[in-house]
From TrEMBL:
This is DUF8129 domain-containing protein. Residues 1-22 are annotated as: Disordered. InterPro entries: DUF8129. Residues 1-15 have a biased composition (Polar residues). Residues 16-70 form the DUF8129 domain. It comes from Halogranum rubrum.
Length: 73
């Protein structure tokens, strides 16, 4: 696991794998919705790219990145 992944679990206790490999799409969506920083988001994108590369998940992560960027302004 990379340092970004380890650091991203500090605030929530969830790894990218736990966020993105949940048994239902509702739990995956909740895992994405609870990402509040870009380090966690980058770790999740890296995890998804290295594993399943699901377009819907990557699209949702991109949407969440835009939301985070908007909140930071």
């Amino acid at each position: 696991m990379s340092n970004d992944s380890a650091e991203s679990t500090t605030s929530t206790g969830l790894t990218p794998e736990q966020r993105l490999e949940a048994p239902t799409t509702n739990l995956i969506d909740a895992g994405i919705a609870t990402i509040h920083d870009m380090a966690t988001l980058r770790a999740c994108v890296a995890y998804e790219n290295a594993n399943q590369q699901r377009v819907r998940i990557l699209r949702r992560l991109a949407e969440r990145a835009q939301e985070i960027r908007t909140q930071e302004k």
